[in-house]
């Protein structure tokens, strides 16, 4: 099993690219943070990144662990990973608690270049300036953890899929479930 991370700042197209990869038959790990935020907002609870930052990071870690251990396949793509927490903690000026450090390494990391437009949503509350700052911190966090992310350029979703798959060992058909 090979596990690859798609990452980048808010609004760079990770979820859209993952949906396209899923449509091609690849197993996916959805973004844990988005799930936690949506659930907390729906149930009117306050474990959110803007009200209880460390509590939120703990919930995201547990959800990420559950999601990643529940998906099987030869090639799996993850919408973010445990490493992203380092960037968010860095932005907040807090150290990531040792208990929340990544439990394993990934086979590769793809850092999606920021798109020319940015939209806020109910769970993506950052403005465009903060989104770009987080994007930079995320790239630095992966580098600090020993990864060399492949930067996925801004282009159509189909071109991003082709670019990403061409950077897997074995080229664009590696692990494809047709």
Summary?
The chain is α/β, with parallel strands linked by helices and 178 residues long.
Task: Please describe the structure with a list of short key phrases separated by commas or semicolons.
alpha/beta; Rossmann fold
Describe the fold and architecture.
The chain has helices at about 15-25, 30-40, 55-70, 85-90, 130-145, 155-165; strands at about 1-5, 30, 75-80, 110, 150. The protein is an alpha/beta fold. The chain has a 5-stranded parallel sheet with strand order 2-3-1-4-5, with helices on both faces. Helix 5 (about 130-145) links the parallel strand 4 and strand 5 (about 150). It is globular and about 45 Å long. It starts with a strand and ends in a 12-residue tail after the last helix.
The termini sit apart by: 17 Å
Strand arrangement in the largest pleated sheet = 2-3-1-4-5
Rg (CA only)? 16 Å
| Helix share, percent | 40-55%
Question: Please, what is the average pLDDT?
Answer: 86
What count of structural domains?
1
Question: CATH homologous superfamily?
Answer: P-loop containing nucleotide triphosphate hydrolases
In what range is the share of β-strand residues?
5-15%
Quaternary form: single chain
What is the architecture at the second tier of CATH?
3-Layer(aba) Sandwich
Total strand segments: 5
Class from helix and strand fractions: alpha/beta
CATH topology: Rossmann fold
- Following the backbone from N to C, one meets helices and strands in this order, namely EHEHHEHEHEH
Instruction: Name the poorly predicted regions.
Output: 172-178
Silhouette:
globular
Number of helices: 6
